[in-house]
Amino acid sequence: MAHIIDGKKISQEIREQIIADVALLKEKNNLQPGLAVVLVGDNPASALYVRMKKKGCEETGIRSFEHVLPGATSEEDLLHLVDRLNGDSSVNGILVQLPLPEQISEEKIINRINPIKDVDGFHPVNVGKIVIGDDDCFCPCTPYGIQELIARTVPDLKGKHLVVVGRSNIVGKPIANMMLQKNKRANCIVTVCHTATKDIAHYTRQADILVVAAGRPNTVTADMVKPGAVVIDVGTNRVPHPDGGDKTRVVGDVDYERVSIVAGAITPVPGGVGPMTITMLLSNTVKACRIQNKIR
Ligand code: NAP
User: Fold this and answer.
1) Residue nearest (by alpha carbon) to ligand 1 atom 24
2) For the domain that residue 148 is a member of, what is the CATH number?
3) Which domain range does residue 41 map to?
């Protein structure tokens, strides 16, 4: 049976480190990292994420600034707010919760955030730095969390074959680029599969590390996994509960029950990648505070 990679536990360990880092910044430099979270409209899922981010800030000693704007907010007004946050030295990180209402261009808003405050890691400058391998950047939080889980599970990553299923800008492309870099937390041979891949099993069976971010349950079944492989399941899919009725449950993209018999290690859903994302946002906020105050 596969070792279960406990995202909750790892996330908690990282949060403890963040608490210590925040305390040290206060003690040595009299600084408190600050994160501004902007929510436009009343999407319940987005509101929940914003509450979780605020709670994460409170738990780690990061100052949080919440901006809740009505759903009818204009693009111009949101751009003004971003400009204001860019100019506010107590705000080290800016996160505009996506998706945005249709009258606002997400691209324009992301591009307006100062790249050194872009703790979500979606600004083209940060995307480019990831591709180049410049460490002075912010990795998007989900791939950053995935890398952390991989690095803690596989001590020597050099030359391992990492196969990614999915090529979104949020997960697939960044994790592929991050794991390709020549450093200790990467240095993998990387293959990326997507819907134009004719026989994805041909590739997934070669994976020492398999990252699945397709957004579809059972995309990866046991016959597609090499014995002993490390499987990172990014998917979060709501499906009907086996008990029937109106109940639902969340499953990943991997057939967890059967794959965990073949794999060497696997992330559960929930409890694997999910708990890492907000923790890495907090970690990026501390990094932003250090970069902006030229503290190494
Ligand atoms: P996305 O934007 O929908 O992208 C899915 C990618 O998977 C696409 O590149 C698509 O290929 C590929 N794909 C879909 N079905 C496939 C198949 N049968 N074979 C091969 N490739 C396939 O999704 P995403 O934003 O990357 O998210 C992926 C999953 O991760 C979702 O379930 C999402 O909810 C979850 N997620 C979880 C977290 C977390 O914190 N736990 C964070 C982000 C996302 P094409 O490009 O060819 O269409």
Assistant:
1) 168
2) 3.40.50.720
3) 30-114
The domain total for the chain is 2
Task: Read off the pLDDT of residues 133-187 as tens digits, 9 standing for 90 and up.
Answer: 999 999 999 999 999 999 999 999 999 999 999 999 999 999 999 999 999 999 9
Q: Contact, 203 vs 191, CB < 8 A?
A: yes
Residues 6+ apart with CB under 8 A from 117: 85, 86, 91, 92, 93, 94, 288, 292
With residue 251 as reference, give the H or E element that holds it: strand 248-251
Provide the annotated active-site residues: 53, 97, 120
pTM higher than 0.85:
yes
Atom of ligand 1 minimally distant from the CA of 273:
41
| 54 domain residue, yes or no | yes
Is 147 found in the same domain as 224? yes
Closest approach atom of ligand 1 to CA 167: 9
Inter-residue contact 31 to 289 (CB < 8 Å): yes
- Å from CA of 213 to ligand 1 middle: 4
∠ CA 24-25-26, nearest 5°, is 90
**CA of residue 170 to ligand 1 center, whole Å:** 9
